[in-house]
Amino acid sequence: MLLTGSLTRLVALEADQDAELHARWSRDVEFFHLFNFGPARGATAKQAREWLERDADDPNTFVFTILTQDGGKRIGLTDLSVLPRWQDAYLGIGIGERDYWGKGYGTEAVRLVAQFGFAELNLHRITLSVFEFNTRAIRSYEKVGFVVEGRSRQLIQRAGRRWDSITMGLLRSDWKNHGY
Amino acid sequence: MNHNSLFEGQLVCLAPFDPDKDAETEARWTHNTDYMRQTFFEPLRPLSVAQVKKKYEEAHKKEERNFRFAIRTRADDRLIGFVALEWIEWVHGVARFQFGIAEAADRGQGYGAEAVRLMLNYSFNELNLYRLAASVGSYNTGAIRFLERLGFQQEVRRREAIQRDGQYWDDVLYALLRDEWKPTAG
Question: Exposure winner among A1, A121, B43, B89, fewest CB in 10 A?
Answer without folding.
Answer: A1
